[in-house]
Design brief:
Rossmann fold; Domain 2, N(10)-formyltetrahydrofolate synthetase; 18% strand
């Protein structure tokens, strides 16, 4: 008998009424806004009340090795770990991002976890949920429309059309609109100019929502967004255009975190979804604060490998929130370490290379150099690390032992096999024990990688050399000019959010394991003044994905009874 699909497993469970999940957290009925029986938004007033009444729980970030295109089960492990912590008697919640429709209908499929470690209802989770992403897209595009409208009406602010930084967004992977000319068709259709579309989760509005601490902070951040410059170089903000207030109004519901549940009935907060390769890759500060005020321990996920989402979790999210993490989990798989060790090739949508299912301890040890570096990356911040070996049936004891040895040599607190995909919380019990122990010790020496007042070029160099292992950086004339311009505009104190491939510690996705002897090319630099960071574009990194030759959306449909099918 074949293992059931994620969707079949999700539908085999009868969800608890979301009001019951909320009451277990200490939320009152008037502090939640139900969206049906299985999901709800939580008011910001509830967060303020609970933070004043309760001590903060332990804070654990889940990250990973450099992933393959299939992913290493980080979301699944995050959910499974929370279930495991509840299984061993600790009140635990999971905080994860809401996925973009681009990958859901493109290459990745569902993102609610997998197997018996999922957030439910998984159809709602993976699709529209409570409409937050649509609200973000509307707010972003409203600013774009105001900007072009100002140009059309005689450009009273004196905006330099060639200085415009603000793209448009759509939450579908659509390479055809990466670069486009708008305003064609005559005088009444606007001012012709070249622009671009990026995916909605890459929008600065998404980053702003994820980093905002309350509604007024959201309003302030939105007002600081720089859209363009005037002919004399003065920044033009959404406040200057008079659109910041309207953008805020569109997001008054979206700022409230969404409460769902795991397959085992534990709380799951799903809020915001910035990608980690082109944005900061973490769920919202508000959701984490709510979870920390209602639980003994919280598992929050950072996108892709520790060089990506985790570095940004520490240097951007924790810098903004003031929260101090207590421990980190680095997820690894045997098959991915073999790939990093030079064995086999993994291509999404194609059958797994047989070489990756055959025992090869040597390849695991070679590829585990990537794991060792990612452990080191977390420890740069003074945070204890537990390695979670996400188990597959073809793993052997010798291969797992090799991972344990490399992990401990690299300074990990522990390395534990977890079978949460097939066994749910019980399969993550040993992992949960190790994580609870590491979190109990905490991170009293937690530190950020660089100070606010370091020059922007120095910050970029620090990340490239200390986190990626590069020899240095190669800053293009365009990027150097941008650094000079942004520092002159007063943005030199901002942290750095690197836009880099997730498939290598370097800028080149073909360099696996722990590459050395490379220089990181900085092609250009974008400003996100409202979110509060600058984004160096590394190599050929794109901000709008494309669809594969056979998009995952081809399999998604409804059956004779109107049920969704094909969603992972």
């Amino acid at each position: 008998m074949s293992f059931p699909s994620d969707l079949e497993i999700a539908r085999s469970v009868t969800p608890r009424p979301i009001a019951d999940v909320a009451r277990d957290l200490g939320l009152t009925d008037d502090e939640i806004e139900p969206y049906g029986r299985t999901k709800a938004k939580v008011t910001l007033g509830a967060i303020r009340r609970l933070e004043a009444e309760r001590p903060r729980g332990k804070y654990v970030v889940v990250t990973a090795i450099t992933p393959t295109p299939l992913g290493e089960g980080k979301s699944t492990t995050t959910v499974g770990l929370a279930q495991g912590l509840n299984h061993i008697g600790h009140k635990a919640a999971v905080c994860i991002r809401q996925p973009s429709l681009g990958p859901v209908f493109g290459i990745k499929g569902g993102a609610a976890g997998g197997g018996y470690s999922q957030v439910i209802p998984m159809e709602d989770f993976n699709l529209h949920l409570t409409g937050d992403v649509h609200a973000i897209g509307a707010a972003h595009n409203l600013a774009a429309a105001f900007l072009d409208n100002s140009l059309h009406h005689k450009n009273p602010l004196g905006i330099d059309p060639f200085s415009i930084l603000w793209p448009r967004v759509v939450d579908i992977s659509d390479r055809a609109v990466r670069r486009a000319v708008i305003g064609l068709g005559g005088k009444e259709n606007g001012v012709p100019r070249e622009t671009e579309w990026i995916i909605t989760v890459g929008s600065e509005v998404m980053a702003v929502l994820a980093l905002a601490t309350d509604l007024h902070d959201l309003r302030s951040r939105l007002g600081r967004i720089v859209l363009a410059q005037t002919n004399d170089g003065t920044p033009v903000t959404t406040e200057d255009l008079g659109v910041a207030g309207s953008m805020t109004v569109l997001l008054t519901d979206a700022i409230k975190p969404n409460l769902l549940q795991t397959l085992e009935g534990g709380p799951a907060f799903v809020h915001c979804g910035p990608f980690a390769n082109i944005a900061h890759g973490n769920n919202s500060i508000i959701a984490d604060r709510l979870a920390l005020a209602t639980n003994d321990i919280v598992c929050t996920e950072a996108g892709f490998g520790a060089d990506m989402g985790a570095e940004k979790f520490f240097d951007i999210k924790c810098r903004a929130s003031g929260l101090r993490p207590d421990a980190a989990v680095v997820v690894a798989t045997v098959r991915a370490l073999k790939m990093h060790g030079g064995v086999g090739k993994i291509v999404a949508g194609k059958p797994l290379d047989p070489a990756l299912t055959e025992e090869n301890v040597g390849a695991v040890r070679t590829g585990a150099s990537n794991l060792a570096k990612q452990i080191e990356n977390v420890r740069l911040f003074g945070v204890p690390v537990v390695v979670a070996v996400n188990a597959f049936p073809t793993d052997t004891a010798a291969e797992v032992q090799a991972i344990r040895e490399v992990s401990l040599e690299a300074g990990a607190h522990a390395a534990v096999v977890a079978t949460h995909f097939v066994d749910g919380g019980a399969g993550a019990a040993d992992l949960a024990k190790a994580v609870w122990e590491a979190a109990a010790e905490g991170a009293p020496n937690f530190r950020l990688l660089y100070p606010d007042d370091a020059p922007l070029g120095e910050k970029i160099h620090t990340i490239a050399t200390q986190v990626y292992g590069a020899d240095g950086i190669d800053v293009s004339p365009l990027a150097a000019k941008a650094i000079k311009r942004y520092e002159a505009m007063g943005f030199g104190n901002l942290p750095v959010c690197m836009a880099k491939t997730q498939y290598s510690l370097s800028h080149d996705p073909n360099l696996k394991g722990r590459p050395g002897g490379f220089t990181v090319p900085i092609r250009d630099i974008r400003l996100s003044a409202g979110a509060g960071f600058i984004t160096p574009l590394v190599g050929e990194m794109r901000t709008m994905p494309g669809l594969p030759s056979r998009p995952g959306g081809e399999k998604i449909d409804i059956d004779a009874d109107g049920n969704i099918v094909g969603l992972f």
